[in-house]
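Quick board copy: two proteins, each given as sequence then tokens.
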Amino acid sequence: THLMYAMDAGTGQARWLSHETDPQPWTDDYVDAVTDVGDDFPGLGDGELRTGPAQAANLPAPKLDVLADSTSGVERTLRLRLTPQRAVRLATLHVDTSTATVLRAEVAGRSVPVEPREGKWGFGLVFHAPPTEGIEVTLTVRPIAGQVALRAMDASDGLDALPGFRPRPSAVGIVGSHSSEMLAVARTYPI
């Protein structure tokens, strides 16, 4: 089986997600529709997933602090710190391309390629094994709107402590995927 949990800490909405195209009975109890979740959870990738409503858990989203914010001509440079608020295995940061175009990006002082993609969150970074003190990111953007919308997400393993989760029967295995049993929490920060 394949099952994930994703929650938007800003809205309090949560849902179960699955990559299973034909869910087996245990997974089918959690998912009842097919939805593209790319706009809500760009860190989970594009494409349609099976989804179903879930109870919101008391989990914090990653924190996004502005360390510096400067403007020069038409360019705005944001120096940020993305800090998970719980033990996680990955963190992501995406820019809403209707609010800004990313011109340059640095992570921990190192330049990273800027390769825009289609969709609302046209630029994003994924950090594996983020340190507890967080990750420093510098984005140089050309603003399109008054505020730049940034979507921060982190993800950990394990669904057992979530409200509404029922343990898998012993005869039901887990798909060998990096997203099986993933618990993701996201929030949009307008800066």
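And the next:
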Amino acid sequence: MRTVLRGEGWVHYGQIYVESGADHPDPHACFRGQENGLCGAAMPGTLFLITGLHTGHVGFAVEVHDGPPPVDEAWEEVVEASFRPVGPASLVTWGGEQSWPLGLEPTDHRVRYCGTRMDEGRAQDTRTIDEPEVDRYLLQFWPAPPAPDRVVVVTSGTAHYWHGVPRTLPPPPSPEERAAAERRAHEERRREVERARREAEERAWGGRLPSARLRELRGNALAVARMDRPLVDALAEANAATQRKVAHWVTRRACTEARLTEVPWIAAALAAMDRGESLPPPFHDERRVWDRLLSDPAVPQTLVTSPDGTTDNCLQQAMAFPVLFSAHEPDPLRAAVDTLWSAVVAFGHGRHPILFAEVREVFPDLGTPTMSTGRAFSPAAPTGPCRSPPPRPPREPRPRDPAGTAARAARSTRQPATPR
């Protein structure tokens, strides 16, 4: 035999519990369909134990046996039930203020609940700390197969009353009814998860769910949609030819904004794009071409502020440069939204309405943006010219440094960061 507790336990409302799962003991679920009304064991993994005393400390002991112990005739009330823990089991006081781990194996047990002087405890109702013990109880566990609960000994009027309570409760659900209830609960949880997911997605996309095509793209499509959802929707509904034309136009517009059209080898890439050809060398080697962008003295250097306004030293040419790659994306819609996002970054903080207005002017089928009032909105005023860094001094001849070149290229990124 192993003694878990021998002393006193706090009760309130004449209750103390054994819990092994997340669910709090429910009196109806614990006693429904039982013969006894002192040890409610019908709720899986839970025991709902009744005491005579309403509030205060009662004598309480818990024992774990290897087999059924004999019934001590000194106990006035004795009931038995079956119990199987669904997790670590503990004796828990009302409100969870105290608990004692029972160390039960996750197998079927028989539990015997014994009590004495329940009527006296009920008559006293409340016991203060300086008053002597009134009623006391014993809880015994041992391994045993499941069996119906039973009343072994009943003496007090209090116990008689509680034994009558289960008969006033509706019968427990059948296995089929429990399975149906679990299915309904599972379906309700699934619907709640789906509802929360949809609401989160609606918030992310500006209050309206995206089409399947836009949902596939996410990334830059979501970033642009947060700035101008009607434009992104119109792009998604446009045909592939229009999407590709938008991508090409935005590519050239971003390069113009960043003065990359003045750089001969970049101008050659734009010309190849216009002819429907693939990118010419050195664009076949992404590391090499980024290194050339950052080291070529013919490439202008101007700074812009990031779209979120948090960084004011973004190199405009590096922000625009990814459009040259995005324009050649096999998916024309992805090409359109990716080039738009790079152009937004290249234009700088607060200037994206200018870009979007120009896109709509060139491609009128993409529609006119409206605010919630239904009125056309005016593009925000430019934030001002981008400030340029100090002129670079003439470069002195130096040995080729492959390691340094690779390091600079590694620090570069093909695509500016996209909000998630």
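Board note added afterward: The two ends are 60 Å apart (CA to CA).
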